[in-house]
Amino acid sequence: MSAAQPSIPSEIESSPLYNRDLAPAGRERQTWGTYNFAALWVSMSVNILTYMLAAGLVQGGMNWKQALATVFLGNSIVLIPMLLNSHPGARYGIPFPVLARASFGVLGANVAAVLRALVACGWFGIQTWIGGEAIHTLIRTLVPAWGHLPYGPAICFVAFWLINLFVILKGIEYIRVLQGISAPVLLAVGVLLLGWAYVTAGGFGPMLKAPSRFSNFPEFLQFLVPALNGTVGFWATVSLNIPDFTRFARRQREQVIGQALALPTTMTLYSLIGILVTSATVVIYGTAIWDPVQLLSRFHSPVAVIVSLFAILLATLNVNIGANVVSPANDFSNLWPRKISFRTGGVITCLMGIALMPWKLLANYKTFILGWLGGYAAFLGPIAGIMICDYFLVRKRRLLVRDLYLRGGRYEYAGGFNWFAIAALVLAAGTALVGLLVPSLRVLYDYSWFVGFAVSFIAYYAFTKVWRKGEFLAVVG
């Protein structure tokens, strides 16, 4: 059962570190059950980028078994930090940026929050670009002349951007309702797409006959390492900000079961659809098409195109709001709680999503999997390592919620910053990124999330042990 939440004391309400969006969730707001968390992951996993992640593995040289095993293993691994970071959210009702104050300090938490927020802004832009692409294809199917309009894709991108903004302004409860309704529909659409591939390609035999393009195990391993790292990095963002959702859990057990059942299974099953359909495009069209929107544009049935693209738009909207807006909106709010609300933070996220130029991040599968996913994992892995070490090993799962919202309390450290956490973050991220500069150490970057997590976890724990006396002892207790 989640810890009981007392009424908010006046000293916290008047604190510059507090606003209503960052406040602990009381019992009246803790209404999410097992189905809600399962539906959250179904709706976030069933999206174009899951499809493109799996399709990219096939395009990179894996056969269907290798690609599927990579996706399942990566999502099983990321589930571990996901559930560990979920615990304090459900127990204390606090969102990610407030939880980060315990390990980074009441002001230092902004370092972790902004790093996480910038990555989410990039994801928001990517999903919005895909949604705009779907709208463009949909209109072109209905009105062929639209395809000759020079700025058609840009107009559709802005249109989908405005739809996302509308949902953001409606608030978190609207997100929960939307996800609960759409989850089963989206799975059904995926099965229908698989049925089309089966019939058109002539069965599963032709779809699965493509062999691995790696001639030996070392060659396969060279691609597997960054591919697995990218697969873990796919949800490394949400593994940090998952308290933004679990703070609304009715019980600890319900959020654990909902996530454990839905995340690895849904990602693997929907990835299988992407793998099989992409393999079928080789048989049908003679080339691998890893973008389902481009695939749908080749369909001859306007009805099939319209229904499928509408489902893609719904899926993209769900994952974009759930995975890429809730967290950065809270993160930006944490920068200036008295002035930046959840909605204002969401607007900032929308603007930053455009500024990060998502069309370049989706240029090809190498840029997406090896560059984008692997690059930001070098920063998010260390943050996860520090937070998990701090909560479970250093604090033994005990937090003083009151002091998370006050200056001068247990989490003040040195002027609001825990320099042990900052040092561990810099050391871990630097260790992973050195692989980009030194070719012989490339494996450090290829395993950026794992290296960053391990180095930061060990370094942070070592710092707290070596400097156990003095100021750190006073703030940890």
Provide an overview of this structure.
- By secondary structure, the protein is mostly helical.
- The chain has a single domain (10-364), classed as Hydantoin permease (Orthogonal Bundle), CATH 1.10.4160.
- The chain is built from 23 helices and no strands.
- The chain has helices at residues 10-13, 34-45, 48-59, 64-92, 96-104, 109-142, 152-170, 172-201, 204-208, 217-234, 236-241, 243-246, 252-285, 292-296, 302-324, 326-335, 342-355, 358-361, 365-394, 419-437, 442-446, 448-466, 471-476.
- Helix 2 (34-45) packs across helix 15 (302-324), helix 6 (109-142) runs antiparallel to helix 19 (365-394) and helix 19 (365-394) runs parallel beside helix 22.
- The longest helix has 34 residues, at 109-142.
- The chain is globular, with a radius of gyration of 22 Å.
